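Ticket opened by: R.M.
Priority: normal
Category: complex prediction / small molecule

The reporter submitted a protein together with adenosine monophosphate and asked that the result be attached to this ticket for the collaborator who will pick it up next week. Submitted input follows.
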Amino acid sequence: MLIFTKIDELQYFLVQKKAEKKSIGFVPTMGALHAGHISLINSSKKSCDLTVCSIFVNPTQFNDKKDLERYPKTPERDLEMLKKAACDIVFMPSAQEMYPEKDERVFDFGYLDKILEGDHRPGHFNGVAQIVSRLFDIVKPDKAFFGSKDYQQVMIIKALVELLHYTTEIVTCPTLRDPDGLAMSSRNTLLNAKEREVAKIIPKLMQEAKSLKDKGKDVTEIKEHIVSELNMRGNYELDYFTICDARTLKELKSFSEAKEHIALIACYVGKIRLIDNISLN
Ligand code: AMP
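Result attached by the on-call engineer:
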């Protein structure tokens, strides 16, 4: 496994591999890796000749400074996991390397970056677009792999690809979960034992939303039920629970308004903000 910290050295290496007609798969991450990240590496390895994983905690996508400061960093463990997964190339740049100057670009994704995560984390998706476009310009991947746990992020990345005319294929991969259903996340390591115990209600409620729909309940009834379940418990602070058209992320009032439906949640357990989603089809 080769480790690069400099953009020009990585580019020099990749240009040669592309000349040899090797296809490049790319998995961008912020480190503190878990099995969910490794599943993206495995998907890339299955369909590409070479897999590049980047580890970079991107400051421009954090609207909350404290969140950035406490974001977990486990570089040695990450490298061990990537080596074990037979990842070919790791790119671990410094912030100075990625942003020698302030990135002033402002992307407009219409309503898509203003709702849900965009609404609760102003500037978040602009920062995501800044870093992903920089990484795509460096790696020029044939395919890039993203997790559907960050459902809105995948839609933003697809919009970015259209906006900047990238030829990279965006591959969406399923969410890996702990045995009790909690979606794996680097942030889970920040939960204390009690918080980790209460966090498992999130996937339980998402499953409940699905079974309520299967029983014929409509959007408003399901939303009311889930929100009151959470409020009753009191250990959570809900940012949103909503049901949307899975293709557009427009919020629904009734299932009849769309063909594919998705429920999305963001809530705090203690100081840690967790997100999850479930397809309701
Ligand atoms: P992050 O390091 O949190 O920025 O995530 C890097 C990539 O891993 C993103 O495409 C995430 O959607 C994806 N990812 C995060 N958690 C999971 C998970 N539990 N299962 C699958 N992919 C995930």
